[in-house]
Amino acid sequence: MKLPSIAKRHKGPGTTPGEAVYIGAESDRSYSIEAISYDEDTFKRSSFTKSEDIADFIQTTRKTWLHISGIHHTSEVEKLTDTIGLHRLSLEDILNTHHRPKVEFFEDHILVILKIIEAGEKNNTRQLAIVFMERRVVTFSECDLDYFTPIIKRIEKKAGRLRRFSSDYLAWAILDLVVDHYLIASESFEAELDGFDDKLLENSEEIDSTRLFKFKSEVNRLHRQFLPVREIIHHLRRSDSPVLSDESRPFFDDLYDHIVHAIEGAEQLREQATEIRDFYLATVNNRMNEVMKMLTCFSAIFLPLTFLVGVYGMNFDYMPELQWKWSYAVVWLLFIASTAFLLRLFRKRGWM
After folding, report:
1. What's the pLDDT at 123?
2. 190-249 pLDDT, tens per residue?
3. DSSP 8-state secondary structure symbol assigned to residue 288
4. 85 in Cβ contact with 78 (< 8 Å)
5. Rounded to two decimals, what is the model's pTM?
6. Strands lying side by side in the sheet with 63-69
7. Distant-in-sequence, close-in-space partners of 271: CB < 8 Å, separation ≥ 6
8. What tens digit of pLDDT does each residue of 309-343 get?
9. Are residues 98 and 222 in the same domain?
């Protein structure tokens, strides 16, 4: 039997650090750059398909946001990172879509890698790499820019502080959006968990056992995704990097509270999912015990009947009882009496 192919999760041995090697699932998505520049008075949005085309766009004093999709086009990504001045190790991490969530500080930029959960797809995660520099934020992901629509609308409508604050505030807004989606996913799992709880109380036989055990593994995976993000935000709020402005630091403190809340919710989901799974297994075992008890009672009822039938079914030439006129009726009375006695005994003991 041919096993399913497994996506490549690491580079080959001996590969040069910082080499542009894509690690991830195959994709037919075309390479694209969505570019936004803005300040307190202006807003401009453009699209590009070649990395060299953005050279003029980024030569501005305004804050810029570049969103790159189709990162499996390594040559284009490499050109872009060289143009904006990213470290080669950042390029390596960005191209590895199976990278563990982390934050890394460089002299002139910060790299954050984490997993995002898209709306309505609580089990579907994608990697998002965020690079924030002075006056510039760059995001790398296979998700569409639609994921960031709430932030883009705030920039367009001059809502909030995005137009006024520095670019690290935009990076905070992106992280805040990611954490908000984590909370939405937790609420979705919680609603499904309530459904399991209701079915257990009403009729446990209606529970899909396969889904219940899969649910437990999904909650565990959700919790594992949340934990590294707490460390990322903790390092950001404690960092003395010049990329982070004093005006944005209180918002990273607030974001830390949000991710802690999400982790606590995920931990509670894990505990409740374990309790429901254990209760479900106990219920199944109890039903099985009831069935076995019933079968045992019926076996015990038929045991004396089988004994009597076996005795009088022997092929001896001389059995006095067989010559009696009322022997057949007596045997039936014994059958009925023993059955009635055992039924009464079992019911009195609560076994039936």
Report:
1. 61
2. 888 888 777 777 776 667 777 777 888 888 888 888 999 999 999 999 898 888 988 999
3. H
4. no
5. 0.77
6. 43-48, 32-38, 63-69, 136-141, 125-133, 109-117, 102-105
7. none
8. 777 777 666 777 767 777 778 778 877 888 888 77
9. yes
- The count of C-alpha atoms lying within 13 angstroms of the C-alpha of 130, restricted to the half-sphere facing its C-beta, is 27
Does 48 fall in a domain?
yes
The CA distance from 313 to 335, in Å, is: 15
Kind and range of the H or E run holding 146: none
Range of the domain at 328: 292-348
Are the CB atoms for 187 and 252 separated by under 8 Å? no
Residues 334, 239 share a domain: no
Residue 33: closest CA among 58, 4, 15: 58
Taking only the tens place, the pLDDT of each residue in 15-38 is: 666 687 888 888 888 899 999 999
In a domain, 21, yes or no: no
Considering the domain architecture, whether residues 223 and 187 belong to the same structural domain is answered as: yes
Cα dihedral sign, 285-289-292-298: negative
CATH number at 216 reads: 3.30.460.20
Q: What token pair was written down for 197?
A: 């709880």
